[in-house]
């Protein structure tokens, strides 16, 4: 009996170790060193990182070595501000972060008033120097403009060096009818990992298809790591294909559209109510149009008059009706 329990426990532990991790790294990092004109480290400097698209900010301070690190940043363009007493403020703009990338932004502060600023534009061509990962990035605009057959993002993998499709590779279909069988740098076709926003997207049953096929219109960034990636991708022996969706941008656009529609409806309703009530001879003092919202009986009277006297509400007579 005890032997059977031990075997069962060992089997559960082995199965738990074989299960895929729920998420992988998709966020980015900005780090750097703050120094004075002599090259000495500045400790305690205030560092503010701002997303230029969403205006979300993160704050940090330099340590005794003048170093700072800001992690868990969404891909996009950022601005880094560094402040310290007796030094001019340093501002670095247009720092572009990709999926699971690290940008090194050093700041050499100049002596002066804290109200003065020194603005620097980030280099548009940024080289990844913090890791040895080898990969490629396709931005969302390029994904949407490329002529992909069937509008499938899987075809983007075939544009990368070292990728060899197999005979069963089928990017046009989906599910079990499809197949993402391709080899990267000579590795096994089942050694690739597909991720969507850091979540494993592989079909662990067949291990040759994926579960979710996001629309190319919803993709913010496509990134493939082909070699020398970090230990956070410990399950793969081939390539890491990571998709970042435009969830935040789409939600903000939908919210702005909803607010605009709601404001438009509210303004139109109020304008029509005032126009109709001014043209209706309602003698009750509580039904005056400048006392909105109106009581229920005022609206009841309004609809009765609207039904039985429709001519009085035509646009031609709306502005000439009696006012009460």
Task: Provide structural commentary.
- With 324 residues, the chain is of the alpha/beta class.
- The protein folds into 3 domains: 94 residues, Carboxypeptidase-like, regulatory domain (Immunoglobulin-like); 115 residues, Ferric Hydroxamate Uptake Protein, Chain A, domain 1, CATH 2.170.130; 47 residues, no CATH class.
- It is 22% helix and 27% strand.
- It is built from 5 helices and 16 strands.
- The strands form 4 sheets. Strands 3-2-5-6-9 form a 5-stranded mixed sheet, with no helix packed on it. It has a 5-stranded mixed sheet with strand order 10-15-16-13-14. Strands 1, 4, 7 and 8 form a 4-stranded mixed sheet that branches.
- Strand 13 and strand 14 form a beta hairpin.
- It is globular, with a radius of gyration of 31 Å.
